[in-house]
Write a structure and sequence with these properties.
Elements lengths: L3 H11 L4 H8 L3 H8 L7 H11 L3 H5 L8 H13 L4 H12 L4 H18 L2 H16 L11 H14 L3 H10 L7 H10 L4 H32 L3 H16 L9 H19 L3 H20 L27 H12 L2 H14 L1
Length: 357
């Protein structure tokens, strides 16, 4: 924004001038200079030019004006930055961008996101209504989109978010149910059915599907982190994420009953053993391998792949979960050890198996 008042004061002080002295130079009253520096009034154009000349600066510099790049890419980047930084000035920036690029998907989408963000956080219906209109416009421009993380269902999800913020829960839930590709909104639907609609029975299948889906995602995230940290030569970080992940997953078991998480965690314990070995902690590594064998053997005695084997999951889905570890948990452990190619782990596993036999 313009910084005329600050600039007049700063330039005056650089010249060691009082307000009275500057007023005398410009042929105005002391009160006029005081009002300029206090943001109570603005000097006329001829005085701006005279001041710029006196201080040896351009009028733009005196005003504090900086030329912005108003090209499309720079405009979109500014809107994104305002969104990330929660800069409410971004709303004004959005309106200017929409006037200049009314038919550009990115401008319309980022503007909608800004209005939705501030409208939802402050429950400001006018902003939310503006967001809805812009999201409808974005939907009509979706063929321009090149961002793989955005599609029609994402836009409908944001529309539902706006309706939720306006208290239109049933309308939002219906919108989400109609655009719930791959169960992407199961958690949101389940939450709002339970919390706002008091439709507890209807919420449970959605929440159960969401929990099973998120458990599968969590397993992939744990393995991804572990592989990334291991590849970067940071076994301590890999161990830390594996320990956290195992604890989180095992916390979802329903008591001591065998569960498909036993099979998954037995393989994770093998990975944990490898990281502990890299950290020069053979005793803990061997114990992790023993735990892997115990979990795997227990699961293989009574395998249970039902989603309802998880705590909290309602038994409404006939299909079971699956993995690529092998037909049995012990086979999964053997494969994981072979893939890790650490001779010490292979030797320990052979001893453990012989002892169990």
């Amino acid at each position: 924004m313009l910084k005329l008042a600050e600039n007049i004061r700063a330039l005056r002080k650089q010249r060691n001038l009082t307000q009275e002295q500057l007023a005398e130079v410009l042929g105005v009253t002391v009160g006029a200079v005081y009002k300029w520096e206090a943001r109570l009034s603005l000097p006329e154009m001829n005085l701006l030019i005279e001041m710029a000349d006196f201080f040896d600066v351009s009028v733009d510099a005196l005003l504090g004006y900086e030329m912005k790049d108003n090209g499309l890419e720079a405009t979109v980047a500014r809107l994104e930055a305002c969104h990330r930084g929660r800069d409410r000035q971004g709303l004004a920036e959005a309106e200017k961008a929409l006037k200049k690029y009314p038919h550009d998907f990115r401008v319309v989408y980022e503007s909608a996101s800004l209005y939705l963000s501030f409208g939802a956080s402050g429950r400001e219906e006018a902003l939310l209504q503006r967001a809805l209109r812009l999201l409808e416009d974005a939907r009509l421009l979706i063929q321009q989109n090149r961002d793989p993380k955005i599609n029609q269902d994402i836009l409908f999800g944001k529309m539902a978010e706006a309706r939720l913020a306006m208290g239109q829960v049933r309308e939002a839930v219906s919108l989400l149910e109609a655009h719930n590709a791959g169960g992407m909104y199961d958690d949101v639907i389940g939450l709002n059915l339970a919390a706002d609609c008091n439709d507890y029975d209807a919420s449970l299948p959605y929440l159960s599907d969401a929990l099973v889906s998120h458990v599968a995602a969590l397993i992939r995230v744990i393995l991804g982190y572990a592989n990334a940290y291991d590849g970067k030569g940071d076994p301590a970080k890999a161990r830390e994420v594996l320990q956290w992940g195992i604890g989180a997953l095992m916390g979802l078991k329903d008591g001591e009953k065998p569960c498909f998480l036993d099979k998954i965690c037995s393989a994770l314990y093998v990975a944990l053993a490898g990281e502990l070995l890299s950290e020069k902690n053979p005793a803990a590594a061997r114990q992790a391998l023993i735990t892997a064998q115990t979990l795997a053997a227990g699961f293989d005695r009574a395998p249970d792949y039902r989603p309802s084997a998880l705590k909290f999951v309602t038994d409404h889905r006939p299909a079971g979960v699956y993995d690529d570890l092998g037909t049995t948990a012990l086979e999964g452990v053997r494969r994981t050890i072979a893939d890790m190619n650490q001779p010490e782990l292979t030797a320990w596993w052979k001893e453990i198996q012989e002892h169990e036999a």
